[in-house]
Amino acid sequence: MFNIILFGPPGSGKGTQSEKLIAKYGLKHLSTGDLLRSEIAASTPLGLEAKNFMDKGQLVPDEVVIGMISSALEANPQAQGFLFDGFPRTEAQAEALDKLLKLNQTEIHVVLALDVSDEELVKRLLNRGLTSGRSDDADEKVIRARIAEYNLKTAAVAAYYKKFDKVVHIKGEGTLDEIFQLLSNEVNGRMA
Ligand code: B4P
């Protein structure tokens, strides 16, 4: 089993690069953003609760996303490995993930952190907002709130994994293929 966290601020290319990584390495993609948007689309109680936070650019409460990831891990006992995209986003989520993986006798093997400047993030997300229909991409104020949440609560997750020497920083600006090549080089080196 090989487990990756793809880490970075909103708009850093996590979702985009995840699609390419799961296709190449046969991993199961677990995106908390996608899971939450499915719950919203199905108007479940969890989705209705999450929407209140997401529309303001705030993080959804830890217990909600941890419960979702726990169910997703249970539902995929045959996976060869997981690619976590947008999770963990707080230190409490990172600790919970470590416990869940330990129960399954596995661990996080590498945290790939995409570095992108704030101005580039805002530009990308506003651009995506023109076509995505995502309410959290439509308004610059909400986008900047998401970046502030990242700096306040999520950046600490990289520090958590640095203690275990698992974090690799990758330049997240450039073409999709250039960035994918840098990510693949790291995965290849560690899977060997
Ligand atoms: P997410 O769905 O995770 O969304 P995101 O952070 O915006 O990143 P995403 O992966 O979608 O974007 P990408 O960078 O690929 O989260 C949304 C919300 O859900 C959060 O704000 C929060 O409220 C909630 N949430 C999710 N997980 C949570 C958790 N664990 N705990 C609490 N709350 C949680 O792409 C962005 C754009 O950039 C795209 O248009 C793409 O085409 C473009 N792009 C990508 N790479 C590019 C490149 N190299 N050059 C130019 N453009 C590029």
Automatic annotation (TrEMBL):
Class of the enzyme per the UniProt entry, highest EC level: transferase
GO molecular function terms noted in the UniProt entry: AMP kinase activity; ATP binding
Highest taxon in the source lineage: Bacteria
Region called NMP, residue ranges: 31-60
Record's keyword terms, sorted: ATP-binding, Cytoplasm, Kinase, Nucleotide biosynthesis, Nucleotide-binding, Transferase
GO process terms (BP): AMP salvage
Subunit comment: Monomer.
Family designation: Belongs to the adenylate kinase family.
General function of this protein: Catalyzes the reversible transfer of the terminal phosphate group between ATP and AMP. Plays an important role in cellular energy homeostasis and in adenine nucleotide metabolism.
Domain notes: Consists of three domains, a large central CORE domain and two small peripheral domains, NMPbind and LID, which undergo movements during catalysis. The LID domain closes over the site of phosphoryl transfer upon ATP binding. Assembling and dissambling the active center during each catalytic cycle provides an effective means to prevent ATP hydrolysis.
Protein name according to UniProt: Adenylate kinase
Organism: Deminuibacter soli
Lineage, top ranks: Bacteria, Pseudomonadati, Bacteroidota, Chitinophagia, Chitinophagales
